[in-house]
Amino acid sequence: MKKLMWMAATMLIAAASFADEVAMFRGGPEHLGVTSEQAPREFHRVKWKFPTGGRIFSSPVTANGLIYFGSDDGNIYAVDATTGVQKWMAATGGPVDSTPAVVDGSLYVVSYDGRLYCLDAATGDTKWKFITEGERRFEAKGIHGFQPRTQTFADPYDMYQSSPTVVNGTVYFGSGDTNVYAVNAESGELKWKFKCGDVVHASPAVSGGVVFFGSWDSFFYAVDEATGALKWKFQGGEDPVIHNQIGFQSSPSVKDGIVYTGCRDSNVYALDVQTGKEVWRSNNEGSWVNSTPALLGDSVLYSTCDSRVFRLVDAKTGKEKYRQVGKGMMFSSPTIAGDVVVVGGNNGTVEARDLASGKSLWIFQTDGSKANPYWVLTSDNFLNVPMLSTSAFQSAEAVNKLFTAGCVFSTPLVSKGVVYFGSTDGYMYAVE
Fold first, then answer.
1. What is the per-residue pLDDT for 161?
2. Which end of the chain is more exposed for a tag (fewer CB within 10 A), N or C?
3. What is the pLDDT of residue 20?
C-alpha cells in the first residue's frame, strides 16, 4: 500500500506544472501552493536567521537571489538568500503583514498604514504609493466570548493582510476598508474597486479573467478581472452570537474549473468557477480553516486550526484520502515541494511531512518556542491552555502571550533545498 501511495504521489508531481521562483503569495495568481523545488526529507541545520524589530506574519518570496518579506516593525526587507545579509530595508507607516509580490523588477506590498507600496525590487526605493480608505481588523461585540459581551473587540486572530496578486499589469488586493482594489501596476492609478460588507484580508486569486476572494461578511465573491463587476457570490456560515464561526480568512486557490477556499465556519468549500455553485464541502468539526489549500493533481491538501489536522482530500469529491494530527494549530498554508509538504504551526514549529502518507519527517522549533517565556506550551509542545487563561479564547492578552512562543503563521518558502519562514519571535529563518 505504501509503495502504491508513493507511486501515486510521484505521478502527481510529474503531471504538475511549476515555476522555479516563487515571487507571489502561494507561488502565483492561482495560489496552487506547489513548487518544483525539493524540500529536505531530513533536517540538517539552521543556515541563517535574520532578526527584525517585530513579529513576522508575512510569508517570504524569492526573486533575483533575494528573500523578500514584511515585519510588524513596519519595514519591508530584502535579504540575500544564501547568506542572510540584508540588502535593503524600506520603512512604511505601519506593520507589514502582507506577503510581497515581485513582478518585472517591482515589489508590491500592503501596509497597515492603509497604503499599497510599489518599490524597486533591486534597491527598495519607492516608485509610488496607492492610498486606500484605511486599514482595520475584523471586529465585533463579544467576539469569541470575550468579556464584556457588550464591548467591541478587534479580532486578534485577524493577523494577516491581503497579499497583492499581479496579473496582466494590474495589482489586485483586499483591504480592511471592505474594498477589493484593482490598481495599475505601472502607474498606481485606480482601475476599479469592489465594495464588500466587511473586512477583506484574504488574498485574491485570479484565473480565467475572474478575481476570487472571501470577506469577513460571510460571503465569497467572483468579480470580473477587467471591470470589477460581480459575477456571483456564495454565502458561508454565520455566527451572530460570538462571531467565531464566520468569515473567509483563508485565501482561495483555483484549478480545473473549481475554486477552493477554507472558512472559519469549519468548512473547506469547492465552488464551480462559472456559477459559484457548491461542488462539495469538507467539514472539520468546528475547527477553523484559515490556511489556503494546496492543489496538486487530483488532490487538495489543507491544514486546520483547533483540531490540528493535516488533511488530503479528493479534488472532485472532497472525499478524504488521509489525515494526520499534529501538536500545533495551523494557520500557515502547506507548501508542496517535491515529495515533501512543509507547514508552520502556532506552537512555534515548522514540520516537514511525506506527501504520500502525511507522516512527519522532521520538526524544527523556533527560538521563541524553545524559550517559551510565559509557559504557553507544555513540555511536549502542545498549547498550555490553563497557563494562558481559563480559556485560550478569553482575551487578546492570551493571544499576545501565545505570539511570544515564536508561532509560525508565515507560509514556508522552499528554494534550492532551503526552507524559509518567518516567526512571531521576530526572526526570518532559513533551514536545510
1. 98
2. N
3. 45
| CATH, domain 2-431, list 2.60.40.10, 2.40.50.840, 2.130.10.10, 2.40.440.10 | 2.130.10.10
What confidence score (pLDDT) does residue 123 get? Answer: 98
Going from the C-alpha of 396 to that of each of 65, 137, 143, 199, 369, the distances in angstroms are 38, 13, 10, 19, 19
Strand-pair partners of 190: 183
Q: Output the 3-class SS for the chain.
A: CHHHHHHHHHHHHHHCCCCCCCCCHHHCCCCCCEECCCCCCCCCCEEEEEECCCCCCCCCEEECCEEEEECCCCEEEEEECCCCCEEEEEECCCCCCCCCEEECCEEEEECCCCEEEEEECCCCCEEEEEECCCCCCCEEECHHHCCCCCCEEECCCCCCCCCCEEECCEEEEECCCCEEEEEECCCCCEEEEEECCCCCCCCCEEECCEEEEECCCCEEEEEECCCCCEEEEEECCCCCCCCCCCCCCCCCEEECCEEEEECCCCEEEEEECCCCCEEEEEECCCCCCCCCCEEECCEEEEECCCCCEEEEEECCCCCEEEEEECCCCCCCCCEEECCEEEEEECCCEEEEEECCCCCEEEEEECHHHHHCCCCCECCCCCECHHHHCCCCCCCHHHHHHHHCCCCCCCCCEEECCEEEEECCCCEEEEEC
Cβ contact 70:58 at 8 Å: yes
| Predicted pLDDT of residue 425 | 98
pLDDT at 399: 87
Other beta carbons within 10 Å of 83: 12
Which residues of the chain fall short of a pLDDT of 70? 1-22, 389-394
The tens digit of pLDDT for each residue in 124-153 reads 999 999 999 999 999 999 998 888 889 999
Give the Å distances, CA to CA, from 127 to 103, 121, 130: 13, 10, 10
d(CA 412, CA 306): 20
Residue 320's identity, in one-letter code, is E
**The predicted structure's pLDDT at residue 141:** 94
